Amino acid sequence: MTEVVLENLMMKRQSKSYVDSLHAVLTHAGLFQGSKYMLAGYTGMAFKLSVHHRLLPMSVTAYGQWGESHRPGIDNLGIFTIWDGGRTRHPTFGYYQRDAVNWVKRSLDAGIGVIYWLPEFGVIHGYDDCDRIFYVQDGWSKEPQILLYDNFGLNFTGFWYCQVFGDQVHIPKQEMLLESLRLAIEDWDIPYRLLPDRNIISGRMAYDVWVQALRGEDYDASGAVYILESYCQSRTEIQMYLQDVRGIWPELDQAYACYEQLGALIIQMKGCMIQEHNRRIMQADATEKLAQVLLEAKALEEQAVDYFRLISSKYPDRKRNTVPRWGAHSAR
Fold it and tell me: What is the dotted CATH code of the domain comprising 3-168?
């Protein structure tokens, strides 16, 4: 029987849970050298914004089909990745579960951690074959959680997901930067990532739904705070990312200026929350102020994305303009 534990792999919750998990796994494996906000920028994860029409807390991770939503960012890092996931109610889940347990163990044997949906995203950093358990980090507690092989993928959401990583090819930083801006444009323009469900809205339209929920007062109070905290963190990450990469194109400096102004609005947004009994809550009389500030933030972000479009138009975009031989989709 075998036990494997990846030492010095530590996940800490600071950003989106996927970014926190990804940074822990990749830096431990030597596949990424850099800050968490640079990783959030290069992968495009910082630009993702999704809002449920009632501001439910699940909004923060409801930015699309996870595998397809995460793939472009990992591709932009030049890293090989494989993922699997689905609904645990499907009759074939047991087969996928047993298979996933095996390839998760193979990744750990190779010294690379695994991203796993708890919920939210966490990291599998070890296993013990004798007890048939995985060791999982959620980023909040210093102590690992114990996950039985037989319970792999089972959680109250009814969804399961895990992702492993492999070798890496070199991609020039300017190419990574350009692609990250194009990912930002896509996320800004596409309103519905989970069709036919239209209760969750992304990109520019997410702002409008957010404001409508606040003004209608029919929203989840804890979700409203969680979405706002996540938003403030991600927009701060974008500002820091653009600050580090500016100077390549004049339009990039102009986009940075927009996010710098947005940073001042974030201070006002944080002022709409207060601390009460070890948790943050919305101030009762601050919803209209927050709604107005969000509309200002939307206008600034629209300007920034327009600058991204100007940069993108200067260079060919083979990923989006090349139509495969079989058309938009492969033959089946």
Answer: 3.90.70.10
